[in-house]
Write a structure and sequence with these properties.
Keywords: Dioxygenase, Oxidoreductase. Its cofactor is Fe(2+). There is one protein chain. The chain is of the alpha+beta class. The chain has a single domain, classed as Jelly Rolls (Sandwich). Strands 1, 2, 3, 4, 5, 7, 9, 11 and 12 form a 9-stranded antiparallel beta sheet that branches. A 3-stranded antiparallel beta sheet has the order 6-10-8, with no helix packed on it. It is globular. The two termini are about 15 Å apart.
């Protein structure tokens, strides 16, 4: 597994996201998928349920039809050594050290999960920036999105607006919970620029915390599974007393050649 090259790092800087094709080997990817399917079938805690978030298309409550649909297997780093090994992989450390220009730290407070999207009760996620509910002294964090299966717009893959991480958008362009207001013409023009890259199993999407993104419903007949983690440079710190500081962070080691 090779780290991102200089061209890919530059694309991440300029576009706000980049895709590393076949970043994870088929063997490790298949093992993580089997593990994720097992833990999902067992509903192994900690979990987040679609009904708890009540995004469009989610069941209205845990007692409603589909109310037991899991949205995320939480705290992946602590769930199994295989997740921890992926989250702290030296190729990720090297890639992001090249991006940040300093040692890399894994945040266990944000993402750090197996994201699921179910065919019938998986909800739609509106346009947002992840930094909207994070509290760090610098807005410079990058997430990795590992596809455990094929991801397309048909089964709920991400849509992203290229370059939006560098845009200064007025607060009134967002609603009370920091989703982009889709009723505004200027936001509609922005959304029209969005792309939805197709991911093959083992591909990894690296994307900046300020990149606008959204996801539609899963219209296939299979659950979509993705492993998602978030990182920042060692010089960026979570603000004390906030959710972002709620779990111990993990410094990443770069393999010495």
């Amino acid at each position: 597994m090779s780290p991102l090259n200089a061209s890919q790092i530059e694309t991440l800087r300029q576009q706000g996201f980049v895709i590393a094709k076949q970043f994870l080997s088929p063997e490790r990817r298949a093992a993580l998928r089997r593990l994720s399917e097992t833990q999902l079938a067992q509903a192994r805690a900690p979990l987040e349920y679609e009904a708890d978030l009540r995004y469009p298309g989610a069941p209205s409550s845990r007692n409603a039809e589909g109310g037991g649909t899991v949205r995320r297997l939480l705290d992946a780093y602590a769930r199994d050594p295989a997740y921890a090994a992926w989250a702290a992989d030296p190729a990720i450390a090297a890639s992001l050290q090249a991006y940040f220009g300093e040692p890399v730290v894994l945040s266990r407070a944000h993402h750090n999960c197996v994201m699921t999207k179910h065919p019938r009760y998986g909800s739609l996620t509106g346009w947002h920036r992840d930094i909207r509910y994070w509290s760090f002294d610098k807005e410079d964090l990058v997430s990795t999105w590992l596809a455990l299966g094929r991801e397309t717009s048909h089964n709920g893959a991400l849509w992203l607006v290229p370059g939006s991480h560098a845009m200064d958008l007025a607060p009134e362009r967002f609603d009370a919970v920091q989703f982009l207001r889709e009723d505004l013409p200027e936001n509609q023009a922005l959304i029209a620029q969005a792309v939805s890259p197709e991911l093959e199993p083992g591909d990894v999407l690296f994307f900046h915390c300020r990149t606008l993104h959204a996801a539609g419903r899963n219209q296939s007949d299979e659950v979509k599974l993705s492993v998602v983690h978030t990182y920042h440079g060692a010089g960026t710190r979570p603000r004390p007393g906030t959710r972002s500081a709620g779990k111990p962070e993990v410094p990443l080691a770069v393999k010495q050649s």
